[in-house]
Write a structure and sequence with these properties.
With 405 residues, the chain is α/β, with parallel strands linked by helices. It contains 18 helices and 14 strands. The strands form two sheets. The chain has a seven-stranded parallel beta sheet with strand order 3-4-2-5-6-1-7, with helices on both faces. The protein binds adenosine-5'-diphosphate.
């Protein structure tokens, strides 16, 4: 393992790293910082919470010449929250360098952003839509940008930003360095990188597969009408100091947060239908510990740094198994213990089976009554035809579920 001094960072940047309290580079930092400092394009994949931001923020700080007042670095991020968080991390690490960073996102007054851009900034962190607004209005000139990062590239693609990304990258000089960071590496990202990157170095640290040692994962088969009752019982028994509950839809997340509050559980929602102010309020009250429960959709919560939650509840089963790993990756971080629960209804059996086929760590039945469904046998077993898309649990519950779907 190396330390930050060996990474050939400027002394003022190292001073910032020291002030931030970082002792050693994380694996993604250890591997990505060197190539980025040398000017290479880099694709970096590592799970949420492993320090991807600093992995590109430190080389970004080194690439920027603060004596010039031109925009030299651009970071694209999928959500407002993430953009703000990235800006804060760059400012924190660059506190001794004199870098000026601005965040550009929809939901904030465009005039405030005009003013910030007019004052001269070295780096811009923003969400694609609002960045394009500024480019079209002439308030953001990318001609001098030499360092571009796509952060949470998987989420940006999931949110349909592909055309926006193409538009923006088309306005950055071709003589630039491009980094792409993501928690997962679906093939669409590789396609994107082929189009926009020059011979990128690929650094794949690990997937969002949770750690077997520190995360206890449970499933419970629940009647759809009993979900809320079940969840209340779970919260009552576990009394987690902090919990994230994931729902598939914005509406579902909103309603569930309301239902929990009606039962005197301190819960706030986080989803894309809320205003910027409401989302900030939810995040602030949750981070400060004033409420214990955040009820979120996957997209709204992706990439947001929440130091540590004790417990993750999958209120429904995600259709993409990788989303399950994103979700449970919110707990059992940095060697701490965590628990996760997934509520499975009959018409979610095939989705849940896909999750099981993707994980090496066991997801255990929560209660004796959950054992009878035989999910254990489905984990990693080749007896269902090998590929996980081919799996079809064969029992009557499943078939009943299909008919009503
Ligand atoms: P990711 O982008 O991979 O989800 P973040 O960049 O948000 O992860 O980092 C998660 C947290 O870890 C942040 O609070 C960040 O400040 C902190 N962190 C990053 N690198 C280090 C390090 N080398 N040592 C200690 N803490 C770090």
């Amino acid at each position: 393992m190396i330390n930050f001094e060996e990474l050939k960072l400027d002394s003022l940047i190292l001073k910032g790293v020291d002030k931030a309290g970082f002792e050693r580079p994380s694996p993604i930092q250890e591997q990505a910082i060197g190539p980025l400092l040398k000017g290479q394009d880099v694709i970096g994949q590592a799970k949420t919470g492993t320090g991807k931001t600093a992995a590109y923020a430190l080389p970004l700080l080194q690439a920027v010449d603060v004596k010039s007042r031109l925009v030299q670095a651009l970071v694209l991020a999928p959500t407002r929250e993430l953009a703000v968080q990235i800006t804060n991390e760059i400012r924190r690490l660059g506190v001794y360098t004199g870098i000026k960073v601005v965040t550009i996102y929809g939901g904030q007054s465009i005039n405030v952003q005009f003013e910030a851009l007019n004052h001269g900034v070295h780096a811009v962190v923003g969400t694609p839509g609002r960045l394009i607004d500024h480019i079209k209005r002439g308030s953001l000139d990318l001609d001098s940008v030499k360092f571009v990062i796509l952060d949470e590239a998987d989420t940006m693609l999931d949110m349909g930003f592909i055309d926006d990304i193409e538009y923006i990258l088309g306005r950055v000089p071709a003589r630039r360095q491009t980094g792409l960071f993501s928690a997962t590496m679906p093939s669409r990202i590789i396609e994107l990188s082929r189009k926009f990157m020059k011979n990128p170095q690929k650094i794949l640290i690990d997937s969002d597969e949770p750690s077997v040692e520190t995360l206890d994962q449970y499933y419970a088969v629940v009647d759809p009408r009993e979900k809320l009752h079940f969840l209340a019982g779970l919260l009552e028994r576990e009394k987690p100091a902090s919990a994230m509950i994931f729902c598939r839809t914005k509406y579902g997340a909103h309603r569930l947060a309301g239902e929990l509050r009606a039962r005197n559980y301190p819960a706030v929602p986080l989803h894309g239908n809320l205003s910027q102010h409401q989302r900030d309020h939810s995040m602030n009250t949750f981070r400060s510990g004033n409420v214990d429960i955040l009820v979120a959709t996957d997209v709204a919560s992706r990439g947001i740094d929440i130091p540590q939650v004790e417990c993750v509840v999958n209120y429904d089963v995600p259709t993409d198994p990788l989303i399950y790993f994103h979700r449970v990756g919110r707990t059992a971080r940095a060697g701490k213990r965590g628990k996760s629960y997934i509520l499975v209804t009959t018409d979610e059996y095939d989705d849940f089976t896909r999750v099981l086929h993707h994980t090496k760590a066991p997801i255990k039945p929560l209660r004796d009554s959950d054992k009878q469904f035989g999910f254990e046998a489905r984990r990693n077993s080749g007896s269902y035809g090998g590929g996980y898309w081919a799996t079809r649990p064969r029992n009557s519950f499943y078939r009943r579920g299909r008919i009503h779907r």
